[in-house]
């Protein structure tokens, strides 16, 4: 039978076996008025992911069958759909530290001293000895990039000839470079597409479960998060879903988060967990932090989004704004001088409440993270907020105060305190330095005192002692 004929026959057979695939595509799912193709891409991606996984599983089965118990095996690695460096599915399960200690690691090979041989008389072994050399080469495979799979070779008494070792080394290096390239590509693509397939799936499930009615579009793409607008769906037994929701997706690309370590690493609430986590989990922790902080603020009655639900790195909260239009940031509205003054006093009070009742410092407070809605200011973006006794808590507070002071002083609010007065008013501390440098030095001294307390007593101060309650400012 000619190859051509064989192909045709196979095609016929396939068409006969799967006619419903075509039918389904034209079937009940798409109607004239419902040609919504927005989720098609996602569905296709989900199916593709599923297909790739099955394909790889099949490949592994074949690989196993062919290799059997044979000592020499061939690998189908290069034919896999999901290249090991593309896949991060294992990341969810494996913690960093679990892989640090490798119980299978072979003992270090004995080294040959400078003189070039060991032993005496007949038992002399030189560094050129084939067996010693082979073993050394095997052990040197450990120096390859961690993701380069060297199999059980290190554990066995395997002797690699120089030639084989050099070829492997070459291969390891080029794989390392390829991995770096792939990684770079991946980072780019997630940045462009805003959300990766896993996140899409999460969002899709939220709509599918009826919790959300529709996700209408993206409100903001920042360095660390993407925010979407959605119409709320049906209430569940224990939850009322607001009519409009904001969905904050914390980006799972890791680069931007590296320099934010300092906020969370020293936050005692997360301290025990930080060191044990892989980067993906750390990002979930940011989302978790935002949730906890919003809840504290809500309890204190500070105007802020209300938490609806947290799923992994996706936080759903109430939408500040109306009819899909988010409330403007304070930096984007022009307020009458009366409203400006009102906003100022409100923020002053909120900062005090935040500090005293919520035991929090916003740590990224500025006209960018305050929305003007319903004639008042709403605070958002609190994933980086920390407790005042965080090792840098007071410095963060001072920075917040500087932003707020400058904004309102420039905005013509004559009553606006300067940053040092504001800092004292919020914290109730009485730092008297009259210039910024000395003031900052005193802040750092206080932080150091707290750190010393931690060193000596194993716990931090519950609060910084102040000379009584901070003054209450009112209009
Ligand atoms: P980022 O860390 O990226 O700055 P934010 O929490 O500040 O994240 O959100 C980015 C933008 O998304 C905000 O400036 C605001 O315009 C919008 N936004 C965030 N949360 C809400 C919300 N609950 N309601 C309305 N708009 C929101
Ligand atoms: Mg922001």
TrEMBL record:
<dbReference type="Pfam" id="PF01163">
    <property type="entry name" value="RIO1"/>
</dbReference>
<dbReference type="GO" id="GO:0005737">
    <property type="term" value="C:cytoplasm"/>
</dbReference>
<dbReference type="InterPro" id="IPR018934">
    <property type="entry name" value="RIO_dom"/>
</dbReference>
<dbReference type="InterPro" id="IPR000687">
    <property type="entry name" value="RIO_kinase"/>
</dbReference>
<feature type="domain" description="RIO kinase">
    <location>
        <begin position="184"/>
        <end position="428"/>
    </location>
</feature>
<comment type="subunit">
    <text>Interacts with CASP10. Interacts with IRF3; RIOK3 probably mediates the interaction of TBK1 with IRF3. Associated with 40S pre-ribosomal particles.</text>
</comment>
<keyword id="KW-0418">Kinase</keyword>
<protein>
    <recommendedName>
        <fullName>Serine/threonine-protein kinase RIO3</fullName>
        <ecNumber>2.7.11.1</ecNumber>
    </recommendedName>
</protein>
<keyword id="KW-0479">Metal-binding</keyword>
<dbReference type="GO" id="GO:0046872">
    <property type="term" value="F:metal ion binding"/>
</dbReference>
<keyword id="KW-0460">Magnesium</keyword>
<keyword id="KW-0399">Innate immunity</keyword>
<feature type="region of interest" description="Disordered">
    <location>
        <begin position="83"/>
        <end position="121"/>
    </location>
</feature>
<keyword id="KW-0051">Antiviral defense</keyword>
<keyword id="KW-0547">Nucleotide-binding</keyword>
<keyword id="KW-0597">Phosphoprotein</keyword>
<dbReference type="InterPro" id="IPR017406">
    <property type="entry name" value="Ser/Thr_kinase_Rio3"/>
</dbReference>
<dbReference type="GO" id="GO:0051607">
    <property type="term" value="P:defense response to virus"/>
</dbReference>
<keyword id="KW-0963">Cytoplasm</keyword>
<dbReference type="InterPro" id="IPR051272">
    <property type="entry name" value="RIO-type_Ser/Thr_kinase"/>
</dbReference>
<keyword id="KW-0391">Immunity</keyword>
<keyword id="KW-0690">Ribosome biogenesis</keyword>
<feature type="region of interest" description="Disordered">
    <location>
        <begin position="456"/>
        <end position="475"/>
    </location>
</feature>
<keyword id="KW-0723">Serine/threonine-protein kinase</keyword>
<feature type="compositionally biased region" description="Basic and acidic residues">
    <location>
        <begin position="97"/>
        <end position="108"/>
    </location>
</feature>
<keyword id="KW-0808">Transferase</keyword>
<dbReference type="GO" id="GO:0042254">
    <property type="term" value="P:ribosome biogenesis"/>
</dbReference>
<dbReference type="GO" id="GO:0005524">
    <property type="term" value="F:ATP binding"/>
</dbReference>
<keyword id="KW-0067">ATP-binding</keyword>
<comment type="similarity">
    <text>Belongs to the protein kinase superfamily. RIO-type Ser/Thr kinase family.</text>
</comment>
<dbReference type="GO" id="GO:0045087">
    <property type="term" value="P:innate immune response"/>
</dbReference>
<dbReference type="InterPro" id="IPR011009">
    <property type="entry name" value="Kinase-like_dom_sf"/>
</dbReference>
<dbReference type="GO" id="GO:0004674">
    <property type="term" value="F:protein serine/threonine kinase activity"/>
</dbReference>
<dbReference type="InterPro" id="IPR018935">
    <property type="entry name" value="RIO_kinase_CS"/>
</dbReference>
């Amino acid at each position: 039978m000619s190859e051509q004929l064989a192909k045709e026959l196979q095609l016929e057979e396939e068409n006969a076996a799967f006619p419903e695939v075509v039918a389904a595509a034209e079937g009940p799912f798409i109607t004239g008025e419902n040609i919504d193709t927005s989720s098609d891409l996602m569905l296709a991606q989900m199916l593709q992911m599923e297909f790739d996984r099955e394909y790889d599983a099949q490949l592994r089965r074949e690989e196993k069958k062919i290799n059997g118990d044979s000592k020499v095996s061939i690998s189908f690695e290069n034919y896999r759909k999901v290249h090991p460096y593309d896949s991060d599915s294992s990341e969810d399960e494996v913690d960093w530290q679990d892989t640090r200690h490798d119980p299978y690691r072979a003992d270090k090979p004995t080294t040959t001293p400078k003189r070039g041989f060991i032993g005496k008389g007949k038992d002399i072994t030189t560094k050129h000895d084939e067996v010693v050399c082979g073993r050394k080469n095997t052990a040197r495979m450990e120096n390859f990039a961690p993701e380069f799979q060297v199999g059980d070779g290190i554990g066995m008494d395997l002797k690699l000839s120089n030639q084989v070792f050099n070829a492997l080394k070459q291969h390891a290096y080029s794989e390392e470079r390829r991995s770096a390239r792939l990684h770079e590509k991946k980072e780019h693509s997630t940045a462009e597409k805003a959300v990766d397939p896993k996140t899409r799936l999460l969002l899709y499930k939220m709509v599918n479960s009826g919790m959300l009615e529709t996700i209408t579009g993206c409100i903001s793409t920042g360095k660390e998060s993407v925010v979407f607008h959605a119409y709320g769906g049906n209430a569940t037994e224990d939850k009322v879903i607001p009519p409009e929701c904001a969905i904050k997706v914390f980006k799972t690309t890791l680069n931007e988060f590296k320099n934010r370590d300092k906020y969370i690493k020293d936050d005692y609430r997360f301290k025990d967990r930080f060191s044990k986590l892989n980067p993906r989990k750390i990002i979930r922790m940011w989302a978790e932090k935002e949730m906890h902080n919003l809840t504290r603020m809500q309890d204190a009655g500070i105007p802020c989004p209300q938490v609806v639900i947290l799923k992994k790195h996706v936080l759903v909260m109430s939408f500040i704004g109306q009819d899909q239009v988010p409330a403007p940031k304070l930096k984007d509205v022009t307020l009458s001088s009366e409203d400006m003054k009102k906003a100022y006093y409100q923020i002053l009070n909120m900062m005090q409440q935040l500090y005293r009742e919520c035991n929090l410092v916003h740590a990224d407070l500025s006209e960018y993270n305050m929305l003007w809605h319903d004639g008042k200011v709403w605070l958002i973006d609190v994933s980086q907020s920390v407790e005042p006794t965080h090792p840098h808590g007071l410095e963060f507070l001072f920075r917040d105060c500087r932003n707020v002071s400058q904004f309102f002083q420039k905005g013509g609010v004559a009553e606006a305190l300067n940053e040092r007065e504001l800092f004292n008013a919020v914290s109730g501390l009485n730092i008297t330095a009259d210039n910024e440098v000395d003031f900052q030095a005193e802040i750092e001294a206080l932080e150091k005192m707290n750190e010393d307390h931690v060193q000596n007593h194993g716990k931090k101060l519950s609060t910084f002692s102040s000379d009584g309650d901070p003054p209450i400012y009112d209009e």
